Amino acid sequence: MTRLSNETLPHLPAAVAKPDYDRAKVTIGIVHLGIGAFHRAHQAVFTDDVLARDLSWGICGVSLRSAETRDALAPQDGLYTLKVQDGSGETLRIIGSAFETLVAPEDPQAVLARMADPATRIVSLTVTEKGYCHNPATGMLDDNHPDIVHDLQNPDKPRSAIGFIVEALARRQAAGVAAFTLLSCDNLPSNGHVLKQVVARFAALRDPGLAAFVSDVASPSTMIDRIVPATAEADRAAIGTALGVEDAWPVVTEPFRQWIVEDNFPLGRPAWEEAGVVFVPEVSAFETMKLRLLNGSHSTLAYLGFLAGAETVAEAMALPGMQALIEGLMGEEVSPTLPPLAGFDLESYRRALIARFKNPALRHRTWQIAMDGSQKLPQRLLGTIRDRIRGGSSYDRLVLGVAAWMFYARGLNEAGKAIDVRDPLAGRMAALTQGLNDPEEIVTAFLSLTEVFADDLRRDAGFRTALVGALSRLLANGCASELAAWQGSRG
After folding, report:
1. What is the per-residue pLDDT for 87?
2. What whole-number distance in Å separates Cα of residue 304 and Cα of residue 404?
3. Which of 28, 228, 342, 443 is found 20 to 30 A from 21 (Cα to Cα)?
4. 266 — alpha (psi -120 to 50), left (phi > 0) or beta?
């Protein structure tokens, strides 16, 4: 089948939305590290919405590991399909804002040259929590991380996003070019602050003179929200049929999208506000709300749902007791810990989350959400538990989510069969828990992971007792049985 491309774009069906600007006149102003499905369904779409207003904000996407995305998009001139769907139907739209895709391991110099180019005014990231090479419990750079050690020794051939950023900034400093704005789009609390902190530490380890230049880099925090499941072969086939041409890597998502950003861009930015981006002086309250309500709930239902045999989020939500558990978690345990959100309807937001989780058109796999749990739990669940402990309040549902992660992260399901655990600490977790069956011993093993559990939680007797109790029930009765016990409760 003929591929989607600039040449075939005019011949697509009229019902398919297409870019409303002349792609031949676009220049690159944004370098995005980690051009995965989420970026292509979120930030790239907001940029596509407003590119006609200023053609200097095209995107260069950088794959830090694999050539897969480049190999799919390059023959298509960077074009790809955005499929938006829910229970009422679907729409197709061609996104054209990605004009170049580079593969860092193949040609790090090309990536660095693009980042150091004066035309590049924003460097954004979706590299997941582990891409920051930091300790999730403290937010500090892990100086002993293998990629950090390598990048300090080989600054012109970096592996990590942090290494690329600092080397590009060093080249800009040497050339007398102003620093670009750093824009984290990952699910981390105070993500802009965390990014700036690890970049500044890396720069200080390299060169005090460079550290002074880096100290002035703008790094606004953001809150991003859109559910983007992995693209399935069935999606590719259906989209190809609808378009009449092949799209090697479309993305599938839900109608809902949200992006809240601190407005601090010294070298300018696209007019994203015209596409619905909300610019605020301080994003932390919204960020905390999303991390704890959406992401905390997502992780909880993913671990419990996967272990109970649910392949997708919608299937997990249909398990007896799951909706009641998640509603109670959000309403009774999470919401009281949130900072004030003036003018924001929290109850409506919680209802919208439940509806999004139940969307049958999105086959968002529980296994996909379960990845990298050791990096995610401190932000998604443990911070909320810490606040509940300080307030002398219960956290039964939250601790159940942590216990389900421990069950899952051992690498064995309820039948004792191996789970493909994708996590930076997967090997250590498997070694720590090998041969352990006693819930108290398993909890003790996991609490030894200082990257996940800070000293206050590791030493809290009540937290340990609650974890042992929750894990004991899951191991003895199974996740489906434990979920069923919550049937009828509501938050």
Report:
1. 78
2. 6
3. 228
4. alpha
Could you tell me which residues come within 8 angstroms of residue 474 by beta carbon, excluding any fewer than 6 positions away? 307, 400, 403, 404, 407, 482
Chain mean position to CA 250: 18
- Using alpha carbons, list the distances in angstroms from residue 93 to 78, 81, 247, 323, 351: 14, 6, 12, 33, 28
User: Which tokens in the block code for residue 323?
Assistant: 């909706």
Give the model's pLDDT for residue 158. 98
Model pTM? 0.81
Look at residue 447 and tell me whether its pLDDT is greater than 90: yes
CB 424 within 8 A of CB 415: no
CA distance 117 to 111: 10
Reported as a single tens digit per residue, the pLDDT across 28-56 is 999 999 999 999 999 999 999 999 999 99
Q: How many CB atoms lie within 10 A of CB 171?
A: 16
Contact 482, 474 (CB under 8 A): yes
Element (H, E) at 84: strand 80-86
Number of neighbouring beta carbons within 10 Å of residue 323: 20
pLDDT above 70: residue 342:
yes
* DSSP tag of 17: B
DSSP alpha helix (H) spans, 434-478? 439-447, 455-458, 461-477
Question: How many angstroms separate the CA atoms of 386 and 338, rounded?
Answer: 13
285 to each of 291, 375, 393, how far by Cα in Å?
Answer: 10, 21, 21
Angle at 383 between CA 443 and CA 463, to 5 degrees: 35
The per-residue pLDDT for range 65-93, each reduced to its tens digit, is 999 999 999 999 999 999 999 878 899 99
Please give the Cα distance from 62 to 83 (Å, whole number): 23
Instruction: Say if residues 316 and 322 touch (Cβ distance below 8 Å).
Output: yes
Residue type, 193: H
pLDDT of 486 > 60? The answer is: yes
Strand partners, 101: 61
Taking Cα atoms as reference points, which of 64, 95, 188 lies closest to residue 137?
Answer: 188
